[in-house]
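Worked Example 4.2. Consider the chain below.
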Amino acid sequence: MESRGQSEPVLVAFGSNLGNREENLQLALQKLAECADVSSLHPSSLRETEPVGYADQPRFLNGAVFFSFRGSVQELLGLLQSIEKSAGKATPFPNGPRTLDLDIIFFGSLRHTSPGLTVPHPRWAERAFVVEPLQEIAQALPAETFPPEWKTEIAAATQKLQA
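Applying the procedure from the previous section yields the following structure tokens:
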């Protein structure tokens, strides 16, 4: 477990396709900003995307956010789940419609697999609705802020999706 005093760089992807999608995403960003363990929030722009997996549902509004988090990956997961719950998240089945979905894509240099959590997210590089906002953030932040290994992985995923 990480030291409580150490901040880790984090990338979280987010999406919504029920209710007021933009309001749901802004609420999530606001709740992150209000958390004492979160600092230096850098969100991407939002993009409207087609659903993946289960097509018979409304279009999504997606984006991502980079920030520093002081705590463990399990604590971050708990925070994100509480934010989802506060937005009324209910996903009746995998890839189904939802008011808010928050996924940890990267957490420092951590490679982690446990029931309910895999970091990096196992399918992030296959999804343009995740890769595009990550690429936007990677290009916007200074090199000393954004982990270079992430930049390399995101560039490779971008290239693969464009092929």
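The chain is about 35% helix and 25% strand. The two ends are 39 Å apart (CA to CA). Compare this with Example 4.1 before moving on.
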